[in-house]
Amino acid sequence: MTASASTAGGGRPAAPEDGYEPDPRRWRALWVTLVAGFMSLLDVTIVAVALPTIQRDLHATPAEVQWVVSGYALTFALALVTAGRLGDALDRRRIFLLALTGFVLFSAACGAAPDITLLVLARLCQGLAAGFMAPQNSALIQQMFRGAERGRAFGLFGATVGISSAIGPITGGVILALASGEQGWRWIFYVNVPIGLLAVLLGRRLLPRVQRSGRGRVDVVGVLLLGTGVLALMYPLVQADSGGIGRLWWLFPVAVVLLGAFVLWQRRLVAREAQPLLDPRLFTTVRGYAVGAGVGTLYFVGFSGVWLVFALFYQHGLGYSPLKSGLAVTAFALGSASAAVLAGRLVERFGRVLTVCGLTGVIAGLGGTALLLRFAPLGIAPWVAAPVLFIGGIGSGFVVSPNITMTLRDVPVRMAGAAGGALQTGQRLGAAVGTAALPGLFYVVLGDTGGNYRTALVAALAGMAASLALAAFDWRRDRPTRRSRGKCPDEVANNPVHARHT
């Protein structure tokens, strides 16, 4: 923990993280949180390959079926920061287990939904449960681990985020292939039930209990300002397929006003030594937090939308089955999975340069795929592009895992939930922009040029290029400090001058 970060939050110096006794069950408890996090993030992308089947089976319109994806993302993002702060103030373990139980129940409700209206309603509730669960994952890691162990634990957490996002389409395709009949899409949701119930039982046994001396206060005004601001920002995006951006454009300036009021209110609470929902000093005194949040948000703009574009093109454009559509991007998932685990071990040594190299690899992989899909015959282009997608996947593995590790590892434990929630809120906002803009661009270009979907793929690179520029700036700024000190990242992190500089 940085010296300056230790004073963040509540206006008083934080209590030192002394008296830490490592829980002998901490690594087994970590796997419980990773499984739960994997399920919640997998559900963002796993549904993509099933959308055509769901639309046909439930006789839904394109706008209605899009809510199966975007509605989940909306309520997921709305809950994150508030849920993180509640975990910090009250009981992370209890909130995690309650949210996980709710996620399992609403997954079953999604699978049993008889029509599109009830399916969308169940998905909204499922996303809300996932949003309450997600920030507790990173906060529990902060609580259970210290030092180099914390870096390795965050490496596994980051790998889980990257892998779950990448293999969603493949997993969905496999489930649809194994499930028989037109109702097979329901197993995409039912599969969460046995895994989630096992995670609940193990979590009750393994997750650590924390004795708290008193109840923390929750900033209700901050919750309302942030919640309505995020809603105003995301709602036009999730309605993009039905003309939401053009019809609801006025919500964007409303969102700016509300979020600006939220920032001013948080600063006022800090000045009064009260407890804010999200302490602004996370972004100014905790080393790497602001940059990491920006890198993650920009990266997910391109990363999340790409998979919907692939699924739409392969199934609508080339007539692929959901399984074949998923297999067409398997190379990316394999590259991401293999690199993410390795990156978690290398991040303490190489730091931000891993993110820079990873983003370069993703851009090269997806850019090369766009070129191959432009010049190769469409019948074989997806398979010709597989080696290039593999390179892009390796790059992705070196982006998500190191960035999450570097963003959260120096956050004080008592602020870990809110910090993790804010980081993931940025990622969800980026994902909402990507999943709204890229498929919309796909449909526009499809109608104008008869299938020139490569434009949407190239558009995804813009967000990744912006993320690369920010990561490169941070890397170049950090290099002189690390070189002059000649210290390992943990030693540099404990230097208050560096913390203020970053």
Can you write the helix and strand succession as a string? HHHHHHHHHHHHHHHHHHHHHH
Count of strand segments: 0
Main pleated-sheet profile: none
> What class do helices, strands and sheet pairing give?
mainly alpha
Tell me the helix content: over 70%
Radius of gyration: 22 Å
Number of helices: 22
Strand content: under 5%
Tell me, briefly, the overall form.
globular
Average pLDDT, all residues: 78
- Runs with pLDDT <50, length 5+? 1-18, 446-451, 484-502
Distance between the termini: 14 Å
Descriptive keywords:
mainly alpha, 502 residues
Question: What does this protein look like?
Answer:
- α1 crosses α6, α2 packs across α3 and α3 runs antiparallel to α4 (92-112).
- The chain is mainly alpha-helical and 502 residues long.
- It is globular and about 60 Å long.
- Mean pLDDT is 78; it is low at 1-18, 446-451 and 484-502.
- It has helices at 26-45, 51-57, 62-89, 92-112, 116-144, 147-178, 187-190, 192-206, 220-238, 244-247, 251-271, 282-285, 289-317, 322-327, 330-350, 352-375, 381-384, 386-408, 416-449, 454-485, 489-493, 496-501.
- It contains 22 helices and no strands.
Question: What's the short version?
Answer:
By secondary structure, this protein is mainly α. The chain is 77% helix and 0% strand. α4 packs antiparallel against α5 and α6 (147-178) runs antiparallel to α15 (330-350).
Task: Give the SSE map.
Blueprint: H1 26-45, H2 51-57, H3 62-89, H4 92-112, H5 116-144, H6 147-178, H7 187-190, H8 192-206, H9 220-238, H10 244-247, H11 251-271, H12 282-285, H13 289-317, H14 322-327, H15 330-350, H16 352-375, H17 381-384, H18 386-408, H19 416-449, H20 454-485, H21 489-493, H22 496-501
Helix pairs in contact: 1-5, 1-6, 1-8, 2-3, 3-4, 3-5, 3-9, 3-19, 4-5, 4-8, 5-6, 5-19, 6-15, 6-18, 9-11, 9-19, 13-18, 13-19, 13-20, 15-18, 16-18, 16-20, 19-20
